[in-house]
From TrEMBL:
Cofactor: Fe(2+)
Cofactor binding note: Binds 1 Fe(2+) ion per subunit.
Keyword Methyltransferase: no
Domain Fe2OG dioxygenase residues, every copy: 243-363
Positions of Fe cation binding: H261, D263, H317
PROSITE patterns according to UniProt: FE2OG_OXY (PS51471)
Gene Ontology cellular-component terms listed: cytoplasm
Name used for this protein in its record: Fe2OG dioxygenase domain-containing protein
Homology family: Belongs to the alkB family.
Listed InterPro entries: Alkb, AlkB-like, AlkB-like_sf, Oxoglu/Fe-dep_dioxygenase_dom
Keyword field: Dioxygenase, Iron, Metal-binding, Oxidoreductase
One Gene Ontology term of the molecular function aspect: oxidative RNA demethylase activity
Length: 363
């Protein structure tokens, strides 16, 4: 699509009900205060229409009535599971993960999940990066190095050939500075802040928007498989078991958003996507089958699990906002637990971040 058509489509997109809701909740600085950038405050946001399943769950446990359009599932599950009349196939399990489980998955998301052969958004520029979190703690720098590779003559009469390749390697900050080879370098801490996704199990290729089964990959870790199967059971066709084959881990910092989208690259949409939230609170928008449908906004807190199966798989959804201020983030118990374990580096990260792990059956 070219010129006018493309810009018309763009401006139509800007006007959809989904887009309007994204703009309503997105993080903006308040321009009305003429103060310097340092003192700038977030623009106030009206949260009165955001569904709060934590509050709904508490009143449900006190045997109070549920708000209209919300139903609680009765079943063998030891947490209340809520559904929306207007979005069949969508399930919300508030507080499904204990604080210990949340801490465990935060640590995994920052240490083992971004390890090769799993890929991250940094692969395209730097190639595989090993031990990014440790490198951040050790204040390392990723430095571009030139390697001379010599290939020897395999047959008589062929010449020895020297080739140069470039690769990125972690270096101590001082030695990187000393070398001063004019090459490029980037702080590990900057790369950690800019980590946006990692993929586990079958690798998702974002450029083709499909799974590339030819890419090297490890199986989803057993403990994550077990958790996903247990959570998915509520939304599975009777008598069938969920097969976790791929997962996408999303990392959000202040101002980061996940635009409205569908996850439509999996073969069988009757299987749920199991999506768990860790760290700072967020707003999740669940739209309808068209971007013109007004989305339902809801809070996602650390430990909440959402399932999207069946018709809900056809619904646009996204994350327009995360809250990193102390009151809004709602991570005090999580912070205390991590501090108690002596994990200051994880606390530093999660204070201003949200992590989402979503697990899928691909075939
Ligand atoms: O971050 C979330 O809660 C949603 C993630 C999501 O929709 C996705 O990765 O496809
Ligand atoms: Fe999604």
């Amino acid at each position: 699509m070219y010129g006018e058509d493309a810009s018309r489509e763009q401006s139509e997109l800007e006007r959809t009900a989904f887009r309007k809701a994204e703009r309503k909740y997105k993080f903006y600085y308040d321009d009305s205060s003429k103060s310097s950038k340092k003192k700038k405050r977030p623009k106030p946001v009206d949260l009165t229409e955001v569904l709060d399943f934590k509050a709904i769950s508490s009143s449900f446990c006190r045997d109070e009535n549920l708000p209209p359009g919300i139903v609680a599932l009765s079943g063998g599950f030891h947490h209340p599971v809520f559904c929306l009349d207007s979005r069949p196939g969508f399930y919300f399990i508030p507080g499904a993960l204990s604080i210990e489980e949340q801490c465990h998955w935060i640590r995994e998301s920052l240490t083992s999940f971004p390890e090769p052969p799993n890929r991250t958004n940094h692969n395209a520029i730097y190639g595989p990066i090993h031990e990014l979190f440790d490198a951040t703690i050790e204040r390392k720098v990723l430095v571009e190095e030139e390697n001379a590779v010599t290939s020897f003559a395999s047959e008589p009469g062929c010449f020895e050939r020297k080739e140069s390749t470039r690769r990125w390697r972690f270096s101590e900050e001082n030695s990187a500075r000393l070398r001063g080879n004019g090459g490029k370098s980037v702080l590990a801490s900057v790369l950690l802040r800019k980590l946006r996704w990692s993929t586990l199990g079958l690798q998702f290729d974002w450029s083709k928007r499909n799974y590339d089964v030819s890419l090297p990959h490890n199986k989803i870790p057993d403990a994550l498989c077990e958790l996903a199967k247990q959570m998915a059971a509520t939304a599975m066709p009777t008598g069938e078991e969920f097969k976790p084959e791929a997962a996408i881990v999303n990392y959000f910092g202040l101002g980061d958003t996940l635009g409205g989208h569908l996850d439509d690259m999996e073969a069988d949409w009757s299987r749920p996507i199991v999506s768990m939230s860790l760290g700072c609170k967020a707003i999740f928008l669940l739209g309808g089958k068209s971007r013109e449908d007004v989305p339902v906004a809801m809070f996602l807190r650390s430990g909440d699990i959402v399932l999207m199966a069946g018709e809900a798989r056809e619904c646009f959804h996204g994350v327009p906002r995360i809250f990193t201020d102390k009151e809004g983030a709602e991570i005090d118990p999580l912070e205390s637990h991590l501090l108690h374990e002596g994990n200051n580096h994880f606390v530093d990260y999660i204070r201003s971040s949200r992590i989402n792990i979503n697990i899928r059956q691909v075939f």
